[in-house]
Amino acid sequence: MPEIVASVIVTAGWVGVIVQLVAYALLSTGRLPAGSVSYQGLNVFGAIAVGASSASSGAWPSAVANGIWIAIGVVAIVALKRHLVTRRLRAAARTAQQLRGQHVARARRAARRSVVSPAQPGTTAETGPLTAEPGPVTAALADRPLHPGSTRPAGRPEHTGRRRRRTREKVAA
């Protein structure tokens, strides 16, 4: 093996040892929980580097131990990820169930608030028969269907511009 490759592998081994020691120090000081993907990832990375260095120098017991260390770390990461995904799916299901419950409750409240009866020509659902002659806006809306859950006709009447002029007059005053 060329000398530069051997020195790179040895350097990688030392980096792996440092990474494993940093992971252990973070765990011991409480800055990194043992059940975190970060801790397990640092351990796996360090074990790969130390294992490669051990195998290249012929220290097979150390290489095998680091191989087992890698396997344990990978299994732990997979289990943590699976647990995380399951927890997120359960939270999403709870949220969806709460939203469905809120939607049903809201619909029930709305149904209790306004009972809509179909309007007959010349009547409104609230007041009964119209007593006054319908104006141009009322006549334009009389042919339109009602909004669902409301006594108001669907759509908007033609805008006459009165509201805009009044607003401008108030601003000018």
TrEMBL record:
This is CBU-0592-like domain-containing protein. The chain crosses the membrane at residues 6-27, 63-80. InterPro entries: CBU_0592-like. Keywords: Membrane, Transmembrane, Transmembrane helix. Residues 12-80 form the CBU-0592-like domain. Residues 103-112, 161-173 have a biased composition (Basic residues). Residues 100-173 are annotated as: Disordered. The keyword Membrane applies.
